[in-house]
Write a structure and sequence with these properties.
Blueprint: E1 3-12, H1 16-27, E2 32-35, H2 42-46, H3 49-66, H4 82-96, H5 102-107, E3 111-113, E4 118-121, E5 124-126, E6 130-139, E7 143-145, E8 173-177, H6 181-193, E9 196-201, H7 211-224, E10 227-230, E11 233-238, E12 242-247, E13 250-255, E14 258-261, E15 265-267, E16 281-282, E17 285-286, E18 299-301, H8 312-328, E19 341-343, E20 348-353, H9 356-363, E21 368-373, H10 378-383, E22 389-394, E23 400-407, H11 410-413, H12 415-423, H13 427-432, H14 442-456, H15 459-468
Parallel strand pairs: 1-2, 1-6, 2-3, 6-18, 8-9, 8-14, 9-10
Antiparallel strand pairs: 4-5, 5-6, 7-15, 11-12, 12-13, 16-17, 19-20, 20-23, 21-22, 22-23
Helix pairs in contact: 1-8, 3-4, 3-6
């Protein structure tokens, strides 16, 4: 028999966003029902952020062992035990999993239902065993790997991020279809672990990022031995696997032992019966307003399902907004969020706000750009790794529009700019901080300081100093 209950809030999806809403609401004393048809923790814990970074860490260790000669350290032949690498990947997942577990959330007072849920009407969702009427609902179903409609692909075995971490043996030759963040990260990792790797991309790799930053990554991938086939459109897939692609007027055949499809992600909305609840959606995701409310005013959508960006940290930010809006009736504005992004290849690329090209499209001539190379950073010199740069984009009056960092641990250094944009900090406040020496993070202060350099050392300032020196 189907049990019928009433709740304050019902959540579909136990990924980062759904779990955050559930924890907040339950700890505030509300009756919360959480549906999850798959693994607790969602894609990030089980198939995305966590396993990929564990794999990248192993690949980085192998690369470091091979490349210490410039620092006077030479190791013997590097051996990769792929079974132990994958054991590390899955042990990392197991270690983190209790934080997202059913037991933990039931301990917080959440009723967890490990079944698929669907809308029955505008204020009811149901699974096989339970029917829930709630005051508010949250769609937090995340996304899945997109599979392009390429002839022959459906008849050819292929990997996605959901299956690649189940490999038992290292691929001999891995074809990566897609040169975005996932394709670049995993392609480089498998190359450093010992696979031959070819990345096939219809445009340019990391096409969303600053072209100079993508160029830094491109040079490293080539140095690693990754074969890059950019601006290659795949026409069909043949058994093997073999990709038949077109580049200009030429048709090329790309063969390998394994195929990884990494062409992006698509919102997971199948089976939700959104039409029954009056919820509008399209290929990008559920349509939401600035409060993350859908066309059904009882229902919120967050994270990847909302089509506003596919980042775990964005889903967490959405969850915070929903708790404020749904539980405290406070105004929120998801459109105003300043969301950083990081591609965890080596070197990393981190960015927030507008890139240079977009800033010039929006602001025309009222744009100033500061660039500081890691070659001028003392810590980078000491580490023997001067790849990359920082780029600060502002208006002529110094309003921060965006920042791109390309270099070692760039993702760890974008935080300061995320704070600056979220809090409306001025460049003068950035220059006023004391940065510990020697750190790569000094690049942030140097970028801010460069904005003032022309005025500080101008002829006008020199004349002023020549007068003031007599009164000092």
């Amino acid at each position: 028999m189907t049990q019928t209950i009433q709740a304050d809030i019902a959540i579909i999806g136990a990924g980062s966003g759904g779990l955050s809403v559930a924890a907040g609401a339950a700890q505030l004393g509300l009756k919360v029902v959480l549906f999850e048809k798959g693994e607790m923790g969602g894609d990030c814990l089980n198939y995305g952020c966590v396993p990929s970074k564990a794999l990248i860490a192993a690949a980085s260790a192998a690369h470091s062992a091979r490349s210490g000669g410039g620092l006077g350290v030479t190791a013997g032949p590097v051996e990769v035990d792929f079974a132990r690498v994958m054991a590390h990947v899955h042990e990392t997942i197991r270690t983190i999993a209790p934080v997202d577990s059913q037991e933990r959330f039931e301990g917080l007072g959440v009723q967890v239902v490990r079944e698929a849920a669907r809308f029955v009407d505008r204020r009811t969702v149901a699974s096989n065993s339970i029917r829930v009427t709630a005051r508010k609902f949250v769609i937090a179903t995340g996304s899945r790997a997109a599979v392009p409609p390429i002839p022959g692909l459906d008849a050819t075995p292929y990997l996605t991020n959901e299956t690649v971490f189940e490999l038992k043996a290292l691929p001999e030759r891995l074809i990566v279809l897609g040169g975005g963040p996932i394709g670049v990260e995993l392609g480089q990792a498998f190359r450093r672990l010992g696979s031959e790797v070819v990345v096939v991309e219809a445009g340019d790799i990391l096409g969303r990022e600053d072209p100079q930053a993508a160029g830094v990554v491109r040079r490293q991938l080539l140095a690693d031995g990754v074969e890059l086939l950019e601006r290659h459109t795949v026409l069909r897939v043949e058994p093997g696997p073999v990709l038949v692609a077109k580049s200009g007027d030429d048709e090329v055949r790309i063969s390998g032992s394994h195929l990884l499809v990494a062409v992006g992600r698509t919102p997971s909305l199948e089976g939700l019966n959104l039409e029954a609840a009056g919820i509008a959606f399209d290929r990008q995701g559920v349509r939401t307003d600035r409060s993350l409310l859908t066309t059904n005013r009882r229902v919120f959508a967050i994270g990847d399902a909302a089509g506003r960006g596919q980042f775990t940290h964005l889903a967490g930010a959405h969850a915070s907004l929903v708790v404020r809006r749904a539980l405290f009736a406070l105004p929120v504005n998801a459109d105003a969020l300043q969301v950083p992004r990081v591609t965890y290849c080596d070197p990393e690329v981190a960015a927030i706000g507008l890139g240079e090209a977009e800033a010039r499209r929006r602001h025309g001539a009222d744009v100033r750009v500061q660039v500081f190379e890691f070659a001028e950073n003392d810590r980078a010199q000491a580490e023997g790794d001067v790849r990359g740069f920082g780029k600060l984009v502002t208006t002529g009056r110094g309003k921060i529009l965006g920042v791109t960092l390309a270099g070692r641990h760039a993702g760890d250094h974008i935080h300061l700019w995320s704070l600056a944009l979220a809090s409306g900090l001025k460049l003068s406040q950035m220059t006023g901080m004391i940065a510990p020496y020697p750190t790569r993070g000094e690049i942030n202060k140097r970028l801010a300081g460069q904005f003032y350099t022309p005025a500080l050392f101008s002829d006008r300032t020199r004349r002023l100093v020549s007068v003031l020196k007599h009164f000092a």
